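Q: Study each token:
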Amino acid sequence: MKRAPSSAKLSVVSDAVDVVLRRLSTLPSSPEIDELRKKAEAFRIDVEGWTAAPPPAEDRDRLMKLVLKLHVDVAKLERETGPK
């Protein structure tokens, strides 16, 4: 039964990447936005590869930390590009 928790944790990472991509899609295009989108897409590809072979917990946790940093970066851009 260890597979369900691992699957749920992968789902959390996947959902977090999807949220970043949705938030980025609402921002005006810029080189910084494009770079963040590329990172998020690369993370999505990593997560999709994990469905066939789940990663060690350390790899999953490392990627989640990178995705959380993306969330912070997107929030910063949202504040900078928001209504003044």
